Amino acid sequence: MVVLKFVLAFLLPPVAAAMQVGISTHFWLNIALTLLGWLPGAAHALWLVITKQQA
């Protein structure tokens, strides 16, 4: 499951964020960062997965 989250964090950051923390503030922040550019959203999603943030 962790490998899937890493792949999704790279390809579809908001999906990985939703899987990790649910529909929370981090999810909405990730949507905003992804809209600003793919790299900020991907970095945030990877951070969520690496630090194992929970909702």
Features:
globular; mainly alpha
Fold and architecture overview:
This protein has 55 residues and is an all-alpha fold. The chain has helices at 2-11, 13-21, 25-36, 38-50. α3 (25-36) runs antiparallel to α4 (38-50). The chain is built from four helices and no strands. The two termini are 17 Å apart. It has one domain (2-50). The radius of gyration is 9 Å and the shape is globular.
Q: How would you concisely characterize the structure shown here?
A:
The protein is mostly helical and 55 residues long. Helix content is 80%, strand content 0%.
Largest sheet, described in full? none
Order of helices and strands: HHHH
Residue windows where pLDDT falls under 50 for at least 5 positions: none
Beta-strand content bin: under 5%
- Report, as a whole number of angstroms, the end-to-end distance: 17 Å
What fraction, in percent, of the residue positions are helical? over 70%
The DSSP helix count reads 4
Number of strands: 0
The total number of structural domains is: 1
Topology:
Elements: H1 2-11, H2 13-21, H3 25-36, H4 38-50
